[in-house]
Structure formats: structure tokens, C-alpha cells
Amino acid sequence: MHILTPQELHNLAMNIVGKKLTAMGYEFQAINSQLKRHPQFVLFKKGEPTIFVLVKATNNVQNPNEYDTVWMETFKNHAQKQNAKVWFAGVGLANAESVDSPVFKDQPYYVAFDDFIKIIA
Questions:
Q1: Which pLDDT tens digit goes with each residue over 61-81?
Q2: Residue 25: strand, helix, or coil
Q3: Which residue in 26, 42, 55, 102 has the most C-beta neighbors within 10 A?
């Protein structure tokens, strides 16, 4: 069986977040799926400010919303210069049979993602 690489897990998390954003009526101005490149999504909706969405895939399904607060301050400064909002999407992904096992390609998995954390609303 093929264990998903960090990039594949990141892409899976981006697909989950992207579907939710589409359902919310947002259009994508830009998408960046490379690991450690931010933001992952730049959103557009008529009459609203630009929104930068940061996506983080984690195997922590109990608390997927943890992020590096020092790094986030730097990113917030960048966003404020662009007059943009910042949303964080922590997506917990785990093997459906055992959270201690890795996520395998084409095998069931759990998703822990409820909503966005609005860093700059």
C-alpha cells in the first residue's frame, strides 16, 4: 500500500477546503498547492475584500487548528499591507482504522475540519 506523502496529504486537505469555499460562493483568484508556500488560496467575491486562506494538513484530528503564532504574525503583516483578510484551515487527516497508522492512498480516512479560523476578519 502507498502511504500518502506530505505533499499528497496537503493536496487532499486543499481539495477538502476548496470544495467548501466553492460551496460558500467564492471564486479563486490564485491557488498555490506547494507545501510551505502561502497563501494556498486567494479568494474573490464581489463587494468583499480579498481573502488569503492558509491550509495546513495535520494528523492531529483532535485539534487540527494549531498553528505557529510567530509565523502567523509575519503573515498577518503581509496581508494587512494588501488589505486582505486571513483565514486558517487546519485539516486533520487520519487513517480510518487506526489513528496511529498513516493515511494510505485509496483507503478510508477521517477528516477533522469544521470551519475556518478567521485570523483577520
A1: 888 999 999 999 999 999 999
A2: coil
A3: 55
